[in-house]
Amino acid sequence: MISAEEILANEITIFQDRVRIYVQINTPGLIFANAWNNRKTLEFQGQQFYIASKDDLIKSKIAAGRRIDLEDVRLLSLGDIEQES
Questions:
Q1: Looking at the 3D structure of the chain, how many domains does it have?
Q2: pTM
Q3: Cβ-based neighbours of 80, under 8 Å, separated by 6 or more
Q4: Which domain holds residue 65?
Q5: With CB atoms 3.0 to 4.6 Å apart as the test, which of 14, 49, 52, 56 could cross-link to 21 if both were Cys?
């Protein structure tokens, strides 16, 4: 069993059955309380879990500023542009 302290000490990635889960303890551009209030709930194989909202994901990727993150922002925003047309 992994303790909360062990999780908080590191960022981890879990790979199982092609599902990739990232656990982040600090995300640039986001305040946890705000992101928690904006979270989305999904279900997979009967298990509910939370993910960041699309807007918060975009904010964090802009704050990270890496080329790959900015490309993700562009791709995430494409759906918004198509809906406006």
A1: 1
A2: 0.67
A3: none
A4: 4-84
A5: 14
